[in-house]
Structures are given as C-alpha cells and as structure tokens.
User: Fold these one by one.
Assistant:
Number 1:
Amino acid sequence: MGNLAYICSRVEDKKRDYAQYDFSNVQDDALKTFFDLAQEFESLEDLYLVCVAVPKTHFGLDTNFYLMDNKREVLVLVCTSKEGYQGSPDKLSPSSIKPRNEAFIENNSLFTPIFGKTATQDVGASTKKQALLGMLQVTPGSNLSESEKFYFQKFANRIGYAIYNRILKQRNVEHLKFIESLVADIEHNVIVPNMAFRLFLKRLKAKIRKNREIESVLQEKCSELAENGTVDHVWQEQVMAELQEVNRGLEDEFGNIEKHNHNVSLFVESLFRRSHFQEGRFIPRKRRCNFKKQIIDPQLERYQERFHSKGITIDNQLGGVPDESIVVVADLGLISQVYANLFSNALKYTRTVHDGEGNPRTFVAFGQEVLKDYFGSGQDGIKFNVFSTGSHTPPEERDRIFEEGYRGTEAGGKPGTGHGLSFVKRAVEIHDGEVGYESTPLGNNFYFILPIE
C-alpha cells in the first residue's frame, strides 16, 4: 500500500505486543535462531528439521512436526527431533493425530496448530485467510505454563510464515523452469513444424496459378470455337485431363494443409493450457485412447513421405500396433508429441545396417507389448517401442540421452537442440510411466511404458 505512517504504526503495535509477551532470554534466542536458520537453509526438508531442532536444543523438549495432507485430509509425521526427516509427505502413512484448529494436550504432549496461507492462494491474498498447514508436538507438555503454551503458539506462527514463503519461493522457481522449458517445447514442437505450411502453401499457389493459365487458354479456345462453329475433341480431352489433374493436386494440397492444421492445433492446445501455467507443470487431460488410430497413425502419416524420400522403410517386425489395441488412458496431445519426437529422431539417425545374412536394411519399426505386473501386483504396463536401424548409442551416453539439452556424439552437425527426448521423458512421467533405451542387433529401440488403467 506504500503508506509509511501505517507501517510505522504497525511497528509500534509490535513493540507493545512483544513487551506484553515478556518472553525470556532463552525464548527470544530460540525465535532468533529459528529466523536465522530458516533463511540459511534452502530446502524444505532442512526447514522442517529446523522446526524440531530449535525446541529440542533450546528447551530440551522432544519435538515432532506434522504436515497437513489436504488431499487425504490427514496429518503426516514429517520429521522428529529424535529420528530426523521421515520422507516426502505424499508418501507417508497418515498419523493417528487428528487435525485440530486449536492447541491441546494429549499423552503428555502439547499439540499446537500451524497456520499459514497455502501455496495455491494468490500471492496478494489477505493474510487473514489462513489454512491449517500442520501441527507441532512438544513433549513433555503437560506441565507447561500458560505463558509457555502461548510462546509455542507464536513459535508455530513463525513456522507457518516460513513454510509458506519457502513453498512460494520453490513454486516460483518451478514456474520459471517450466516456462523456460515450455518456450523450448513451443519452438521444437510447434514453430519449427509449422514451417511446413510454407511448403504446402507454395505448392497450392503453383497449382492455382496453373489452373488460372488453363482457365485463360480454355477461355480463348472456347471463343475461337464459338466463332468458327467447330469443336476439337482431342484438344478438349487434353484440356479436361490437365484441368482434372490440377484439381486433384489442389485437393491433395488442401488435405495436407487440413491435416497439418489439425496436428498443430492439437499440439498448441496441449502446450498452452491455462492449467499448465497455473500449476507450473504439465497437467495431463487423460482420456481413453486407441493408440494406433488416434496417435500413431496420424504422426506416422506426417513422416511417411520423408521416410520414403530417405529410403527408410516402415517395418512391423516389432509386432506393430493392432487396430484393436489395448485402450490406454492418456493425454492425446502430449503422447502424440511423444511419437512425433521419436519419429523425428528416427528420421535423423536411421542408418543402413546389414543383417545376419549380409543384406542391407534401412528401416524403422514400432510396436507394443504388455508387461504383466510391471507397476506392481495386478498393475500391468504396456510398452510402446520405436526402433530404427543404425549404430548403437555409446554406453557412456545412454544415461544422459533424456537430459534437457544433451546431444550425443552421433548428432554431429545435424540440426537439433537436445530437447526432444527430454520432452518425451517429462510427458511420459506425468502419466506415471517410464522411458528407456535399449540396443538391439540391428540398431536402437526407444520405448516408453504406461500403466494400463
């Protein structure tokens, strides 16, 4: 609000508050220690440990720190002054402690609620709109005086402020990284492929120009025929045949533009969703998909002519993907881009090899296979493969090929940014899947595995 007088009045309010609190030197030192260390340690895990270490060190009290899991509406024990950090909150079992909005004594322990704004609230939201973030447990707590209980309430308030600010900072960093990556996604998967429109439009313009020339000739000839009263049937057939060919070409080019527009529109929609920017990460819109008809065939059609022009055949030796494919729940746009990136890589790096009988082979193949209980008992996975012939990726590079910006020695002077496989990894992982690479006798297989839902 930029009002100095108001700020000064709030400072005076705090002076009076702290005079009334009458905290001891040890209590003051504990608050100062917490404040200093909350700024010093960067990670949330370390901040949680500071929350339990300060009461233990300054007051000799065993301390447990619980976080609220809002999805499950339970408290989870995140760390203790005895055993340290327990693990990621979303992977911990619910605690027997019930969430409450007021302090209470139970089993010789003081439980104090921790309030604060949640990470999903707007940055400018009123600080009065606070939610239960967790609880602080100190033991023994039965013999604490009312002033000591009040002190731990204020200590819990400091924890709430610190946690919110840390989560907000972490979220902002994640947002920046996401936006940087999204810019690369747009360039790699939308802007560069969209340049194909220029080629289609150039072809279409040439067909239209030819059609205009034929129209002009036809008009002149028809005028002559009208004047002479004669009709040249041979000429008429030639003109009509040429006109039909031009019209077929116009229809073909229109079809190319229509398909390309559909594909780019699908990619743009899947990359520019409001939910991505709100959450700072990809938020998939999953639906039941027939992989062959809805994902693989449209992407393969985009690359088929380019494969053919480079002498690369499409082989179904991996079994292909049947029309009646196992239905998988996935984000149609994002997984389509996974295949687009894998086919694009295959186009760049497929090379001729010789099979066991000495025959030259240059091909790409794709297929699927069900992996029983891959994601645990009763949770099958389905593995999708995209194979291409060529020399193997060196062993020392295989652990890095899915890293952002990494390009292997095979890349040479080929155009690229090292973003494609990184996108594949992220798009598959948000579907709770896995990506991988494996060498085979004739080349390289890139695959991803999704759970069958």
Note: The two ends are 51 Å apart (CA to CA).
Number 2:
Amino acid sequence: MGAGAGPGGCFGRSPAQAPESPRPMPPAMLTQEDLRISTLGPRRRLSPLRHLHEGPRSFVPDDRRVMYHIEYCHDEVINPLGFEKAGPREQLYFDPAECRAAIVTCGGLCPGLNNVIRNLYYKLHSDYGVPSILGIRDGYLGLNPELGEPPIELTDQMVTQIHHQGGTILGTSRGPQDPAVMVDYLQELGVNLFFPIGGDGTQKGAHLIAQEVERRGAKIAVVGVPKTIDNDIKFCYRSFGFVSAASEAEVVIDRAHVEAKSTPRGVGLVKLMGREAGFIAAAATIASGEVNFALIPEVPFTLEELLPKLERRLEARGHAVIVVAEGAGQDLLEHEQGLDKSGNRRLGDIGHFLKHAITDHFKELGKPASVKYLDPSYHIRSVTANAADSLLCEMFARCAVHAAMAGKTDLFIGLWNNRPVHVPLKVSVGQVKRMEPQRDLWSAVLATTGQEKW
C-alpha cells in the first residue's frame, strides 16, 4: 500500500468487502436541548395566512419534530431526538406591516440563488404583506457602509424573471465583516427580518450577527438559507444547486468520454468542485456511467496505485475517463499553505498535477497517452437551477420566511429525512458534511466505475 492510502487501498473497499454500516449516529452528546430554536419573544399576532387561500389552513405546532433517525430494528429502543419542523406558525411575533426585510447572497455562485431571492420576496411581500424588502449588495461587504454599495429596494418588476438567470442579481463576495458594524447598519436601515444565503462561512457570519443582536437586545430575526454546490453543509441532506451542478457535470463527463474514445490511448480527465466532500464527483460519476476512476477527498489515493491501474485499463480498453474532486489528493501536492478570504484552506490544483503525472508516466513507458483535461467549475456553478433545485429553493425560501415572521432566529432551514427543519446555527457552523466511504453512495460509485478490478 502506498503512503497515505487508507483502509482498502487508494479506492476504498468494495461493496462485497465492506461490512454493512450502521446508520449515522448523531454527533457526540447532541441532545434535544442542543436543537432548541431561539426566539425573540412570545407570539401574539394571528397569521394573515389564515385568510390567504380558501379552505382550511394547516399550521405547524412548535412541538412537532422530524426524528433524527427514521429507521430502527424491531427490538431497538427508539431515540426521540429530532429537529423542530419548519413551516407556517398560526401566531406571529412580528406585525408584517411594520417589518422591513433584507436579503444577502454570499460566497461562490450556485444554481438557484436568484430563485431563492425571488421566492423570499414573493412570500414576504405577497403572502405576508411586508412592505419593504432590501437586497444587500455584494455579500457581507454590503453591510459595511464604508466599503460596500448601498442596498437596493426589491420590486415585482425587478424579481419577476430572475429565476431564469444564473448567478445572483445582488452580487456576492467572500470574507467576513465585523458583526458589530453589520448589526449597526441593519439597525440603521430598520431591518428586523434578515436572510443570509450562503454556505458554512456565510452561516458562521449569520451566527455572529445573531449573537450580536442578542447581546444588544435588538429584535432582528436571523434565518439562513444554506447554499453550497458541494452539498457539504451539516444537517442538510441536500442543498439547492447540487442537482443542477451534478447534471451539468454529467454532460461534461460524457464529452470527456467522447474525447478519450476518439484518440489512441485517450484519457479524459475532469476536475469537479468538492473541496472537502466528493458528492458532486460521486453523483455525476453514477449519472454518467462512463467514468472509470473517481477520486474524492474522503478516500486517499497514491500515484503508485492509480497509475498501474490506469495502465491496465488502457491496455485492455484503449481509453479511460477519470473524475477528480478538487479537494482530492492534496497530500500529493506542493502548494502554498494558508486560508483564503472565506477561511477555507487553500487547495493545490490536483487536475493539472494529475494531467502532468499521467502524461509523464506514459511517456517514460514509451506508450504516450493523450490526456484531455476539462475543468468546468465556473461553468457548472453559473447555470440556472433545474426543476428539482427550483422546487427546493421555493421550499427553503418559504420556510425561512415562516420562521422569521414567527420570531425564530439564529437558525437555517435544513432538509432532514426529506422534510424542512429548523437547524440551530450553533450546532452546524464549523462542521463539514462528508461522504462516508463505507455507505451506499461510494459503493455505487465503485460498482459503476469498476475501478477496483484494474
């Protein structure tokens, strides 16, 4: 086994070798109290949603839970641990007519950002009657009045068609700002409903804002909408944009397969997003069915194992397709250490490294390989949301507004066991959801690629 390889070699255990994994356990010492949602105070106003549509309206009581585990054995004691279910409350904390909301998008682009903005606007304005919804410009930078552009007042005309556009009409940026400065500005603007849309770094910022709001005794509800193209936010089974990105990545992989087949000893090499988690690489690999080797951060690999396998594949079939997540194989690279503006570790370029390593290896063997390298990262993240992600965006936005109007705060809307839930920011931020190589998704990747047999 090469240096750095994990159990089962550089590509992990096969489904036949791996024992059946128990279902994932909750983080150590996680209790129901840890999952309690903070509120700004008692709710005394009846929701206007009672009269919005004809017929009875279903409201969600605060004691309704979505269980952490939905599977159990017949002789097992059932653990009642669960997340508070998201949805409309019959009573509100805020008077909608006296509210002002603000929406901000932060971090990298992701399919569906404009969908979330649009749905937040319509739920706030059309359903609840909130008179003013601000769009904060260029991420958290826009909450520092000395550095950012002033906010814009969102209107029907402005948002009506934005779900057909990629990116975000509000702009985005990376990096934190001083929570005290941001809360000062939110108070100056008269905002009492705040919706940050972004990944873990954004939600860390939201948590700091919520803490500063609480310290001041201010009445601002902070409700996040999780956004990560890598699908790596803890306690959110699927984040919006992931399926759109995986679908677009599948198309790129198929093109790489065409390139590889069209030349002697052709190798199609595709680098996909996935800093700490290989969900996009895994999903696109399975969807395509044309990948021969998938490399992800959760399963270490070495060139001493990969290159001989690739040799055998080329000798037998004449071509190969490799998919690598951007965070895979970082231990093989020499690159500048440190953190980027979002606080993430800097990554070396594993795609270029593998291209040169493969090219040099086969050249030394006297059997040159034709390596076609594709890096579609910026293309994938800037596409519009597909139907599945559009539905998820609507649900996240709708539930975020319901939570904020009820005075709930310091949370984001998660998806757990296919139900929307309230996730306290304090239990999620700073953690990363990763693939578990012993579970079904990686087993499906190995079965699809057949990479172990080489």
Note: The chain has a mean pLDDT of 91.
